[in-house]
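FYI - complex with glycine, inputs then prediction.
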Amino acid sequence: MLTAITRSVSPAIGRCELEYLERRPIDLARAEQQHREYERCLAELGAQVIALPAEPGLPDSVFVEDPALVLDEVAVITRMGAESRRAEAPSLAEALARFRPLRHLTAPATLEGGDVMRAGHTLFVGASARTNRAGIEQLSRELAPFGYSVVPVEVRGCLHLKSACTYLGNDTILAHRPWIDMAPVQHFHIVDVAPEEPWAGNTLTVGGTVLIPSAFPATAAKLEALGYRVRTLDISELMKAEAALTCSSLIFEE
Ligand code: GLY
């Protein structure tokens, strides 16, 4: 069964990490409501949602994508580049241990799940402010026995690789090209985000539906015109925490 692990918004989200955005006040009640809508949407699209309780002392802990990576055979608990976020991993590891054997990345590796874009058995991994070469090499060594290849991609100007691009399936990537080195993905068909919406590259495809933030209507219309089934979600408060749609869930087959 399709399973989505989420975690409630931390009341401390206003103190979240930020790399490229100016800090703006986050309306906690609104962020919580948007996150509940997100969870409801995942359930409507067929996922069993396992919502972990909020971590009041961990501002970014709603973003469960970053401390772990779940593949069919194994889950990898990452070592996050943001030191303030490393305490998010143990409770997530505990939840994932029900579903997968675990592997752990260790120092000097740093890697965050937002930097990992999967296309079949290839994992494109952003070399970013949060993910270093040692992290990419360790991930590659851990996953080689399962038949995955790991391909580094230089990221510049945004938080994670998936802030700039996401895989839509069928050898197609939605991307904001200026933020990544396109060479490693040049063999894919590229759909460019609308020029006025540079942050629109992060979509989440669930059960054949492409979810995209309602802040990006031009890119949503472009995807619809290409024949994708598109649904928009308002995540405006979470976006102030430099988040996107993939950040708030880990989705896998049970
Ligand atoms: N606020 C999300 C992050 O920086 O990890």
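The chain has a mean pLDDT of 98. The pocket of glycine is lined by residues 16-17, 19, 60, 63, 82, 159, 241-243 (CB under 6 Å).
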